[in-house]
Write a structure and sequence with these properties.
Strand order of the largest sheet: 3-2-1-4-5-6-11
Oligomer: single chain
Helix content: 40-55%
CATH topology of the largest domain: Rossmann fold
Number of domains: 2
Distance between the termini: 47 Å
CATH architecture of the largest domain: 3-Layer(aba) Sandwich
Number of strands: 13
Shape: globular
Largest sheet: 7 strands, parallel
Bound molecules: nicotinamide-adenine-dinucleotide
Radius of gyration: 19 Å
Number of helices: 11
Strand content: 15-25%
CATH superfamily of the largest domain: NAD(P)-binding Rossmann-like Domain
Structural class: alpha/beta
CATH class of the largest domain: Alpha Beta
């Protein structure tokens, strides 16, 4: 399905959502962003989109905005996306990720709009999953964040059946790219890039051994657009395992730094390996990740440094790089 006219992006002031907004605008859509700006930043939202600042757990406010927008498609990225917060405040995690998603599904049913829901791979599949993990593996989340995303997936699929709408669930790998914050708990590419730019030693948990399936945000955006109107649950990943040590080496090479990171033990509850099988998305959506990690990291480092330079005092000339 090709999207047109009005679309809604929840979480459109966030890292991934803001790129989705840009792509939808470039395709000629009218874009309404719904975001409570809890971790998002209004400056990320393109001027051509309209921003509605509201919390998706507020069903009445959400209903008013969605009824007024009457969208053709809803890209649902708003979430409590921190694993740590999900452990310290599982009730809020559940409110936003489960109840908020349910509110959205009800509003989508009234508008007759398909939902493209962003779930997660690693946090869902857990440590016992085969590598690369297929969608058929029964999830075994390690933290409330994985549990709330899994519960939300179940609602999305149930509402797809009961309302006969082609909702899609996309289980994303570890997404990286420009606009990712270096100040969150995740986003290791942004965190390493920031440390390298400042000439500071980065902390490398698990002594650099844990692996992840890193995917560039532009590939994720393409998957979201291609999944519009196609029901199902899809891994959106590269199928390639990259260790944190390898990732650091590529970034340090790009930054021209020989600074060694500080090796630390794996944090409690952290995954050792994560890599997903993307073949279903290839077969059904005709989608595959196109950006090789070395190219994606080099482009991301350059983009992130431009953002750091615009917002922070430059690092002292004596420090690396
Ligand atoms: N970044 C990744 O590697 C990754 C991996 C797997 C899944 N995801 C999922 O992709 C989506 C986007 O992630 P991101 O990395 O861009 O995170 P992000 O924190 O940058 O974006 C989330 C956005 O949702 C907004 N939001 C949070 N709670 C809200 C609420 N109650 N009401 C309205 N808006 C709310 C935030 O302000 C923010 O703008 C999330 O659903 C996340 O779980 C991300």
């Amino acid at each position: 399905m090709s999207v047109s006219d009005t679309v809604v992006v929840t979480g459109g002031a966030g890292f991934i959502g803001s790129h989705v907004v840009d792509a939808l605008l470039a395709d000629g859509n009218r874009v309404v962003v719904i975001d409570d700006l809890s971790t998002g930043d209004a400056r990320r939202v393109a001027a051509d989109a309209s921003l509605e600042v509201l919390d998706i757990t507020d069903q009445a406010a959400l209903t008013v905005v969605l009824d007024r927008a009457s969208p053709n498609a809803i890209y649902h990225l708003a979430a409590q996306a921190s694993v740590t917060v999900s452990v310290t405040d599982p009730a809020r995690d559940c409110d936003v990720n489960v109840q908020g998603t349910l509110n959205l599904l009800e509003a989508a049913r009234r508008c007759g709009a398909p939902v493209i829901f962003t779930s997660t791979g690693g946090a869902l599949y857990g440590n016992r999953a085969p590598i690369p993990t297929p969608e058929t593996f029964i999830p075994s989340p390690l933290a409330p964040y994985g549990a709330s995303k899994w519960a939300a997936e179940a609602y999305v699929l149930t509402w797809a059946n009961s309302s006969a709408l082609p909702h899609a669930v996309l289980r994303l790998g570890n997404v990286y790219g420009p606009r990712q914050s270096p100040h969150g708990e995740a986003g290791v590419v942004a965190i390493f890039s920031h440390a390298l730019w400042r000439g500071e030693r980065a902390r490398m948990f698990g002594h650099g051994k844990p692996t992840r399936d890193y995917i560039h945000v532009a590939d994720v955006v393409a998957a979201m657009l291609q999944a519009t109107g196609t029901p199902g649950t899809f891994n959106i990943a590269t199928g390639i395992e990259t260790s944190v040590r390898e990732l650091y080496s590529i970034l340090a090479g790009t930054a021209g730094s020989s600074l060694e990171p500080e090796p630390l033990p794996l944090r409690e509850g952290e995954l050792e390996r994560s890599c997903m099988d993307p073949s279903l998305a290839r077969q059904v959506l005709g989608w595959r990740a196109r950006i090789p990690i070395a190219d994606g990291l080099a482009q991301t480092y350059t983009g992130l440094v431009a953002e750091f330079e615009a917002r922070e005092p430059a690092p002292t000339p004596t420090s690396e790089p």
